[in-house]
Design goal:
The chain is mainly alpha-helical. The chain has a single domain, classed as MFS general substrate transporter like domains (Growth Hormone, Chain: A, Up-down Bundle), CATH 1.20.1250.20. Helix content is 79%, strand content 2%. The protein contains 14 helices and two strands. Helix 2 runs antiparallel to helix 9. The longest helix is centred in the first third of the chain and has 29 residues. It is globular.
């Protein structure tokens, strides 16, 4: 499963970098931001439904179905690009939408599957492995994206000239489709023995949809923890798809190499977190470390607004990648302990929907023409810093003080 996830994640990562940069190169980032907000909003309803499917059907078969459907659609779109020499804008938007919808199914299913086959004492270790594999893939995808988006023309010692032409968008989609089918083959041969009995929920759809909300209503501390620890993930996605293309083109006034380089550094920071976070925090309360990450993220975002520096921006990418991945590992291992496997798909879908709503709000605000003018994009970093600061304060009030009890 880790290998299949890494293979499909590689090309997805390249595509998800290529699409926003495609819009940025044509000076229509504001249009992309609006599209991103609409697509993200549409996934609210799909996310809730996806959670019911995760708790209703065999999770390995769901992986097979989603990879097969996404791979087929991308292959068809890429074929149109090869025949026409380019792709209409609406097909590029469709690929972006299909990938986002796929994420809404993939990650709840992945975490439910991992919880199903793992024992509790291994939750932190296994979630760390997920981050290590996933972020290693992101590092490679970011590096490849730099080459595919901008091309390469360098002189290498002893080897001479190395020249690679920049790829067109439909060529990148072809690579993406191929890796989906490779994942299908790997997943097909997975044979697993669950560590716990998976109880299939055969209730009606309406009743299954209510289960996640009802669980969180009855467990308010789980809700507070699950919602506010998602804050760094929210700003990471908003930054990657909405803020960063405008920040790089309008404020730093540099090219796609910086955009791809930031993805590499996000991935490197996250990879470091996946390797070390379990060892560094095994004797510390999870909430204490997450709160520290929240306040660190706030400071990093503020400095992005205040400093016009490419070296610092790269450092910020490394730090944000570490904070985001470290928080994800600790957050998921805690939720595994608190949420029964037969309902975790729906509970995670509730958190996913709330995450989507926050991202839509940020994206709609940052889509305003004001942010596309000159250095105004820096105000987006002030807004995101305020969000993580408020989240950190709320977590501290509920979990950081001794009177709140350990978590």
């Amino acid at each position: 499963m880790f290998t299949a996830n890494a293979i499909s994640g590689f090309a997805q990562g390249v595509s998800m970098l290529a699409i926003p940069w495609y819009f940025a190169q044509r000076g229509i980032s504001s249009k992309f931001n609006l599209i991103f907000a609409v697509v993200t909003f549409a996934t609210i309803f799909w996310g809730l439904f996806a959670g019911t499917l995760v708790d209703r059907f065999n999770r390995r078969k769901l992986f097979l179905a989603t990879n097969l459907v996404e791979g087929t659609i991308l292959l068809l779109v890429a074929g149109i690009g090869w025949s026409m020499g380019d792709l209409p804008l609406f097909l590029i938007v469709m690929v972006f939408a299909i990938t986002i919808f796929g994420y809404r199914m993939h990650y709840p299913n992945l975490y439910a599957f991992v919880q199903e086959i793992s024992s509790p004492e291994h939750y932190t270790r296994v979630t760390s492995y997920i981050e290590i594999v996933g972020q290693s893939t992101n590092v490679i995808a970011g590096a490849v994206a730099v080459v595919l988006l901008e091309g390469l023309d360098v002189q290498l010692p002893l080897l001479g000239a190395l020249k690679i032409e920049a790829w067109q968008i439909h060529e990148i989609f072809t690579l993406d489709a191929i890796t989906y089918f490779a994942s299908v083959v790997l997943i097909f041969f997975i044979r697993y023995v669950p560590d716990k009995v998976f109880q299939v929920d055969r209730e009606k759809l309406s009743a299954r949809l209510q289960t996640g909300f009802r669980f969180l209503r009855d467990n308010p501390r789980v809700f507070i923890f699950g919602f506010f620890t998602h804050s760094i993930f929210v700003i990471m996605l908003v930054s990657l798809f909405t803020v960063m293309p405008m920040y790089i083109t309008n404020y730093l006034k540099v090219g796609g190499a910086v955009f791809g380089g930031m993805e590499v550094l996000y991935g490197l920071g996250a990879l470091m977190a996946g390797i070390f976070i379990g060892r560094w925090t095994q004797n510390e309360p999870k909430a204490k470390i997450i709160i520290l990450f929240m306040f660190t993220t706030t400071l990093v975002l503020l400095l992005c607004a205040l400093l016009k520096s490419i070296p610092y921006y790269f450092l910020a990418g490394l730090l944000l990648g570490f904070a985001n991945a470290g928080t994800r590992v600790l957050r998921i291992s805690y939720l595994f302990d608190q949420i029964p496997n037969q309902v975790i798909g729906r509970v995670n879908s509730v958190f996913s929907v709330l995450n989507i709503i926050m991202r839509v709000l940020f994206t709609l605000v940052f889509s305003l023409a004001f942010f596309a003018e000159g250095e105004h994009i820096t105000y987006a970093y002030y807004a995101m810093a305020a969000f993580t600061l408020i989240s950190g304060i709320i977590l501290y009030r509920n979990f950081g003080r001794k009177s709140a009890g350990p978590i």
